[in-house]
C-alpha cells in the first residue's frame, strides 16, 4: 500500500512539491549562512517525494540552537510552507479518497513549521 500511495502521490503533485523544495534548497545553499536551512529544505524535499511509510520524530537532544534556528526558519518562510501544506491537507480531506493524501500534507506541515531537531525515519 505504501508503494502504491507513493506512486500516486508522485504522479499527482508530489514531484512538483519535492522539486520546489530541492530548487529552494540549492538557492539557500549558495550562501554559507543558508546551508543549514538548505539542508532542512532538502530533508523536506525528500519527505515530499516519498511521504508514505516515513515517520517524523523529534530528536531527544533538541537544544537551544534548534529552537533559535526554528524561529529564524519560521520568520524566513517556514510559516508560508506550513500554511501551503495545511490548505492542501484540508482540500484533500474533503473527500474520503483524499484523506490519506491529506494526512501526508499534515505530516509535511508539521515538519515545515519546525524542521530543526526532527529526524525522518523510513
Structure, described:
With 122 residues, this protein is mainly α. The chain contains four helices and two strands, in the order ααβααβ. It has one domain. It has a two-stranded antiparallel ribbon with strand order 1-2. Helix 1 runs antiparallel to helix 2 and helix 3 runs antiparallel to helix 4.
Question: What distinguishing features does this structure have?
Answer:
single chain, 122 residues, mainly alpha, two-stranded antiparallel ribbon
Produce a short descriptive summary.
With 122 residues, this protein is mainly α. The chain contains 4 helices and 2 strands; from the N terminus they run ααβααβ.
The secondary structure category is: mainly alpha
Give the ordered list of helices and strands.
HHEHHE
**Through-space gap between termini:** 15 Å
State the strand order across the main sheet.
Answer: 1-2
Output the radius of gyration. 14 Å
What is the count of helical runs?
4
The 3D shape can be described as: globular
Secondary-structure topology with pairs:
Layout: H1 2-28, H2 35-49, E1 55-58, H3 64-92, H4 99-113, E2 118-121
Antiparallel strand pairs: 1-2
Amino acid at each position: 500500500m505504501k508503494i502504491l500511495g507513493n506512486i500516486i502521490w508522485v504522479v499527482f503533485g508530489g514531484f512538483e512539491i519535492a522539486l520546489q523544495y530541492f530548487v529552494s534548497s540549492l538557492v539557500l545553499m549558495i550562501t554559507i549562512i543558508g546551508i543549514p536551512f538548505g539542508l532542512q529544505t532538502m530533508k523536506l524535499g525528500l519527505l515530499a517525494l516519498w511521504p508514505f511509510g516515513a515517520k517524523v520524530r523529534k530528536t531527544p537532544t533538541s537544544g537551544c540552537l534548534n529552537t533559535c534556528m526554528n524561529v529564524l526558519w519560521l520568520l524566513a518562510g517556514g510559516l508560508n510552507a506550513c500554511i501551503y501544506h495545511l490548505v492542501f491537507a484540508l482540500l484533500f480531506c474533503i473527500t474520503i479518497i483524499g484523506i490519506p493524501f491529506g494526512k501526508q500534507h499534515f505530516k509535511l506541515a508539521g515538519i515545515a513549521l519546525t524542521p530543526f531537531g526532527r529526524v525522518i525515519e523510513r
